[in-house]
Amino acid sequence: MDPNYALSPAAQHWLQVALIWIGFGSLAGLLARAVFPARQPVGPAATIAVGIVGSALGLLALSLFDGSNLHPIGPVGFLAATAGAFVLLIVYRLAVAYAAKREQGTGQGE
Q1: Which of 33, 60, 101, 105 is 20–30 Å from 18 (CA)?
Q2: 78 Cα distance to chain centroid
Q3: pLDDT per residue over 52-78, tens digit each?
Q4: What pLDDT band is residue 105 in, cutting at 50, 70 and 90?
Q5: Residue 85 contacts by C-beta under 8 Å, 6 or more apart in sequence?
Q6: Residues 94/106, Cβ–Cβ less than 8 Å
Q7: Residue 61: CB partners within 8 Å, gap ≥ 6?
Q8: How far is C-alpha 65 from the geometric centre of its chain's CA atoms?
Q9: pLDDT given for residue 42 in this prediction
Q10: 50 near 32, Cβ under 8 Å?
Q11: What's the pLDDT score for residue 70?
């Protein structure tokens, strides 16, 4: 590889960190969808996004209770990431149900 196109060590590190979060977030999102009892109206891209955001939220919540700096690599981190994604799916499902109920309520008076 041409040395003019090489990334700096700091850029390589942050690229690896981003790929780890994307990979484990995707796995956590898929596992949360598999465990969630109802059918979810989200596609693959939304599953990955829910997994990544849920991973961040689950690990943040666990680090607030535990006081340590966690990352998704490891059993406890992966369980926290999956739990965060699961909670996010529940919140999403409740928001969709609320929006549908609200839409039905406004359509009856016309």
Answers
A1: 33
A2: 11
A3: 888 888 888 888 887 666 666 778 878
A4: confident
A5: 25, 28, 29, 31, 32, 50, 51, 53, 54, 55, 58
A6: no
A7: 80, 84
A8: 19
A9: 67
A10: yes
A11: 66
For 8-50, how does the pLDDT look when each residue is reduced to its tens digit (9 = 90+)? Answer: 888 888 888 888 878 888 888 888 888 776 666 667 787 788 8
DSSP string, 42-55: --HHHHHHHHHHHH
Q: Which residues of 70-100 are buried (b: 16+ CB within 10 A; e: fewer)?
A: bebeeeebbebbbbbbbebbeebbeeeeeee
| pTM of the complete model | 0.72
**Which H or E run contains 92?**
helix 75-107
Collapsing DSSP states into helix, strand and coil, what is residue 98? helix
- Distant-in-sequence, close-in-space partners of 40: CB < 8 Å, separation ≥ 6: 33, 47, 89, 92, 93
Burial (0-12, 13-18, 19+ Cβ within 10 Å), 23: middle
Q: Judge whether 29 and 53 are in contact, CB under 8 Å.
A: no
3-state DSSP call for residue 13?
helix
